[in-house]
Design brief:
Pfam families: FAD_binding_2. By secondary structure, this protein is an alpha/beta fold. The chain has two domains: 253 residues, FAD/NAD(P)-binding domain (3-Layer(bba) Sandwich), CATH 3.50.50.60; 172 residues, Flavocytochrome C3, Chain A, domain 1 (Alpha-Beta Complex). Bound molecules: flavin-adenine dinucleotide.
Length: 478
């Protein structure tokens, strides 16, 4: 289906979290707006987000959470090795609380605000998840009918006239038919490139153990369209790793998102070993899921080792450590034993059980495993991890069979970078000047916030940025 009109003040490409926030902002300004979405459903990966970043929001004021924005900015710039744009990050941080308040006033409900692992207390958790927030945005747009939304319609090519954006070619995904739409302003909100294996491969140390947990539609369309009209190809390669994830090539990774075995093997990790059965890192690296992803990818294979007493403890007594805003129950992994027996019955490749350490080592061909576990238990007994410095309270012995090994890969939620924008979210060319009429928001522009590693230290930062940048771009469009 094609849009009703042939000309609009503004076309927004992508109806995910950033595109829909931009659409509501455009409606507030009475702009004649078209939103096109290549999928059949709306909301993109916005449907799956847990929470959004904000500083000085109504909720933080209620909870007496005070954050010094300048200290936060300094911290994040250092984390990014000064590869993030200081002015852009500053504008985002300074407006982020206001953005949360705007969403709240629209009717988006937040369950809580706080930290995720070792982080700033910035993540505002959506009540009902991102899907509930998307529903609120859509209900605003449907109420007034000022903004037209067309699904199964993708952007194919951007058009320019005398150097200024003049429209785009769109394609009906069902029929392949194309049409030209005129517009002097186009916002790219296509969700980044995590689902484009060629781009991911070109920009990071790719292995088959990397698994996208996105909806499959973030194929880097926005940046590729923009590059064709002169946009700079800017800073790619920062991936929002979801940390360790169950490595199963036979099912889509989201199947394990609420898995208690995944929590036990990744966020409650006791011992991680590599393809030789050697320990290679302080497992508490999982306090920062992107650093955990980085560490796992330094090895050819990674197994999380558990024994029966750790399983019993997690199932019956409770967790060893807090697990941030994970959707899994924060008290006990009371479904863990059922999950394990279910997987063993299915003979899944990622889970191996053995009565002894020797048997586990033989089954998985991990020659150093026995020595590693003996040495690890020794460190536990001494109460000091003189190898990698794991906190004493998380040093837990592995002594009681049966023993379990869960093979880990790394989940990828989104890929940031590809386009450079100014403080109005206008797309810049390689000389640092705007491509007139072209804007990028959400993941398509979020490379401005990071260095080589996504900043989990500022949790909720891509969702918060999706909302902030959507509004920010619309402010300068008339
Ligand atoms: C499982 C999961 C959990 C996450 N949790 C969080 C979280 O808790 N906090 C956080 O900050 N971030 C989280 N993220 C990151 C998330 O990607 C962003 O926060 C948010 O969705 C970014 O919004 P966006 O608009 O850029 O992308 P999206 O919301 O994905 O929207 C992009 C839209 O553009 C459409 N599109 C693509 N190409 C075209 C085209 N050519 N034409 C038309 N339409 C097109 C897509 O179909 C999609 O609907 C999570 C991601 C995943 C996958």
């Amino acid at each position: 289906m094609f849009p009703k009109d042939n000309e609009y003040d503004l076309v927004i490409v992508g109806a995910g979290l950033s595109g829909l926030c931009a659409a509501v902002a455009a409606q507030e300004k009475n702009l004649h707006t078209l939103v096109i979405e290549k999928g059949r459903s709306l909301g993109g990966d916005g449907n799956y987000v847990e929470g959004a970043m904000g500083v000085d929001s109504y909720l933080q004021k209620q909870e007496n959470i005070n954050i010094d924005p300048v200290e936060l900015l300094q911290d994040e710039l250092q984390y990014s090795h000064y590869e993030a744009s200081a002015p852009h990050l500053k504008k985002y941080i300074d407006d982020s609380g206001n953005t949360i308040d705007w969403l709240h006033q629209l009717g988006v409900k937040f369950a809580k605000v706080g930290k995720q692992g070792k982080s700033w207390p910035t993540i505002h958790t959506f009540e009902g998840g991102g899907h509930a927030a998307i529903k609120v945005l859509l209900s605003h747009l449907q109420e007034n009918n000022l903004v037209e939304i067309v699904t199964s319609l993708s952007a194919q090519k951007l058009l320019k006239n005398n150097g200024h954006i003049s429209g785009l070619i769109v394609m009906d995904e069902a029929t392949g038919e194309e049409r030209e739409i005129k517009a002097n302003n186009i916002i790219l909100a296509t969700g980044g490139y995590v689902d484009n294996p060629a781009l991911v491969k070109r920009h990071i140390n790719f292995t088959s153990r990397l698994m996208s947990v996105s909806d499959g539609k973030s194929t880097g369309d926005g940046m590729q369209l923009a590059w064709q009209v002169g946009a700079d190809q800017y800073r790619m390669g920062a991936i929002q790793y979801g940390g360790g994830a169950i490595y199963d090539k036979t099912r889509p990774p989201f199947v394990y998102m609420a898995s208690q075995l995944a929590v036990a093997a990744t966020q409650e990790a006791i011992l991680w070993v590599n393809e030789r059965g050697e320990r290679f890192v302080n497992e508490d690296v999982n306090d920062n899921m992107c650093h955990a992803g980085d560490a796992i990818l330094t090895q050819a294979r990674v197994f999380s080792i558990l024994d029966q007493s750790t399983i019993d403890h997690l199932a019956n007594v409770g967790l060893y450590k807090e697990i941030g805003n994970s959707p899994v129950s924060p008290d006990k992994l009371d479904n863990l034993k059922d999950e394990i027996s279910g997987y063993l019955k299915q003979h899944v490749k990622f889970l191996t059980q053995a009565d002894s350490v020797n048997e586990l080592a033989t089954k998985l061909n991990l020659p150093e495993l026995k020595d590693t576990i003996e040495h690890y238990n020794d460190l536990v007994q001494k109460g000091q991890d003189t190898d990698f410095g794991k906190a004493k309270e998380y040093l837990t012995p592995l002594e009681q069979g049966p023993y379990y090994a869960v093979e880990l890969g790394v989940g990828m939620a989104c890929a940031l970078g590809g386009l450079k924008v100014d403080n109005q979210n206008q797309v810049l060319n390689s000389h640092g000047y705007p491509v007139p009429g072209l804007f990028a928001i959400g993941n398509d522009a979020a490379g401005m916030l990071v260095g080589d590693t996504y900043a989990v230290t500022l949790p909720g930062s891509t969702a918060g940025y999706a909302a902030f940048s959507g509004r920010n771009a619309v402010k300068s469009i008339n």
